[in-house]
Sequence to fold (185 residues):
Amino acid sequence: MEMTDLINLLQRVALDDQIAFAKLYQQCAPKLNGIARLMVRDAEKANEVLHDAFMQIWKNADEYQEHKSEPMTWMSSIVKFRALDLLRKQGRRLEGRFNRLSDEEYLELENTLHWQKENTNTATLSLGMQTCLSQLSGDQKDAVIFAYLYGYSREDIAHIFTTSVNTVKSWLHRGVRNLQQCLTQ
Fold:
């Protein structure tokens, strides 16, 4: 969905258009839920964050200003703040944006990137991927996780991190190259 379409939907949501709100949810919920899940590390809690974020979007759609940010950036910020609120409420901290993935998530990333090592068991792959990802810079690691584990486009990642698409391309290029080097050692 194009940015102008999202702006249009947000403008209609500001007028209490429930159909527009449903369309906005349908188009944006998967990506926003991915952000929540990465932050709170729990699918059920991520759904709770997503619900709270969309309630805030519904109530505050009239506050969105297209000259200040793009729609996905604005909505992503709401999700991030709701996730941080939940973590604080639970007495948890976000120590680095996405420091530790579960073994299952590392395997999913490993499969998505099509890196296969013969005669290696699942635990070794997870540990190897975890070790290699931990050696990437924060931005490279985040970009690789968003792109290859969660399927975000370069444009989506640029919106989420409020940077240019070319910067994201550089993060991904260097991150994948570093992972390949690490995994083949």
Q: What stands out?
A: The longest helix spans residues 18-40. The radius of gyration is 18 Å. The chain has a mean pLDDT of 78.
